[in-house]
Structure formats: C-alpha cells, structure tokens
Amino acid sequence: MEQIEPISRMINALSRLPGIGQKTAARLAYHIAGMPLDDVRDIAAALWQGRKAVRYCAVCGNYSVDELCSICSRTERHNGQICVVRDPKDVNAMERMHDYQGLYHVLHGTLSPMDGVGPKDIRIQELMDRLQDGSIHEVILATNPDIEGEATAAYLARMIKPMGITVTRIAHGLPIGLDLEYADEVTLSKAMSGRHEM
Amino acid sequence: MEQIEPISRMINALSRLPGIGQKTAARLAYHIAGMPLDDVRDIAAALWQGRKAVRYCAVCGNYSVDELCSICSRTERHNGQICVVRDPKDVNAMERMHDYQGLYHVLHGTLSPMDGVGPKDIRIQELMDRLQDGSIHEVILATNPDIEGEATAAYLARMIKPMGITVTRIAHGLPIGLDLEYADEVTLSKAMSGRHEM
Question: Measuring CA to CA, which residue among A95, A94, A124, A96 is closest to residue A109?
C-alpha cells in the first residue's frame, strides 16, 4: 500500500533525523497520526520554537539562549582552562561528569581534508583569539579518538604549544566495565601506550 | 549541566514518542538545534499539518484523508472478506504483503479487562453493523498473538459464528528464517498445535 500523503510526509520528515530510518519513521508517523491534536501541536511547537530560540554562544560556540552561554557567563568557570570539543553535544557529555570547572570551545567540526574541511572551516581562529590575552594556561583537547579528531588535536597542539600554553589530550583506553576480550585493537593499543606506574 | 530551556523543551516533547527515551531524545534535540531553520520548520509542519490531515475511515477505522480510506473506496476490494486488526499500522503491515485483496476493520484496541477495556470501548459494534447486510462471507481475525489479542479473537469468533459467517484466525508458528533453538516456547507450542499433513 502506498501510504496516504500526510503520513508519507511525516515519514519523510522524521527520517531526516539522525538514527531514524524509514522503518522507525513509519512507526513514529503511525503513532503521531493517532495522537491527540494538542499533543502533536505541542511537539511541533517545541521543535520549531526550540530551534528558533537556540543560537551559538558568541565566545565558545556552545548552544545558548543569550549572547553568552550559561558556562561562559559564569565568572567562576574562568579558571584558565579551555576544553576543546567538536560539537555542543560534547559539552553536554563533559558537563554530565560534574568534574570539569573550566571553559569550553566548540569547533563545530573537525579537520577532514577528504571532505574538504580545512582549518578555516571550523572555529580554530576563534580559539586562537581567545588565547591572546594570557588568561588561559591550559588547553585540553577533547576531540573524538577517530582519525579526524586526532588530526585536529595534533594540528591544534602544533599551533598552541609555541604560545607557552600547556596543551593536554584526554586519555584513551579501556572504558570502565568493558572486559579486555571485548575491547577493539585500537582501544587496547591506546590503553597499553597510555599505561602508568601504580 | 541543566539543559538550556529550548533544548530541554525539545527533549521533553520528543521523549513522549514511543521508543524514544531520554537519551535518544537528547541526541535528536542536539541535532535539531544545529539544523538549518528551514529544515526544522519543514519537520514541525509535516508533523502538525500531517496530523491535522489524518482522520479515521468512516467504515473501517483505518487512517484516511477522505471520509472513506483508499481501501474501502475501491470496489474491487469488496470481495466478501474482512480482516480484523488492532491498529492502523497493522493494516499497513498486511498491505506490505501484497497478497490480501479484501477489506479491513480496525478495532483501535483489544479487549483487556485488566486495563478496563471492554467490548464497548473498541470498534466491535461497528464491525457487527458491517456484517448485517450479508455481503461478508469471511472474517479473518488478525489481532496479535498475545493475551489481549487472543481474548479479542475468541470473543469476536463467539459473536460472529452464529451469524453463519466463516471466522478464521491467522496462523501462528515459527517465523521464516528463525532456527528452532531460538524460538520461544509459546511460538513452538503454537507451531506444534498448528501442524498440518504434508
């Protein structure tokens, strides 16, 4: 059966979201078609008005409602550390840890020559500008441990070290709770090379 | 970190959809917050306008744009068979088979005394009304093979058989491609009791 037009329109829209394939989109669309009108209006309004209300922090590039995000606007977070991540969702992941007290810098991408993404295409210049006033003593590179993330970290380290600022990379190794036998080779190799004396 | 308000609003809205937990909702919300405005407007509009455009077929209860659904409005489907299912999505599943040429009846629920769902709460009377004019010679009960689905099928069979209409139940057994050793006991038991001579 061809789907009726309003439902196939919902399926097309939903399947544009990450991790939502045709089958999941169809399941959601069938559910939404049977929901009370008010509930569907609430969801549509939350997405559209939510999206309109979000902008990027003028300093760090994180999602924000105001010109400065909730982290950059708190003076107690200005402790001389900047943690560099790829996406706003990575800021959220770091904050869930409740451990890091410094600032962030969101690159909005990673260097990827294969995809034509060079240093000028991500927020590297903005990071360099932030390092000029001497208030930052450590830059923590927390890009993902994949090819692009490692390349970006290496590039940034080469740029920043000559400024006399400490550059660190988050550790990679065995995740807590994962048995050795289930770890992939790259993770194991990172865990070995990053070993420390007990 | 507490999420900023527009993002937590998106997360709350998305997590009301089936199969979307807090974590998936957060992943989607972070993605949507970074999407182009026009794309998000398209998605919100597809959901809201799609929902507004969907109603129930006045005869079978399937999703429809017009008063009669695309199946009930085609005379070649009026072959004397009605397949009874629980939800509109079940009609879609049956139609994907491209094999069944008759009509449908969507109950919009199954009998469930534990949840207070009785015969008057689902579209059973509407089904009985459709059977009055003598044009239907077979009712195929295709409710799910769970407790409520079986109870509903048994109830309907008791109601319809005295009218001289053939009542059939779709077969339950081993799904194609599933090895015996992985089948659950109830499925195996259904497969045994439904065995037929070769």
Answer: A124
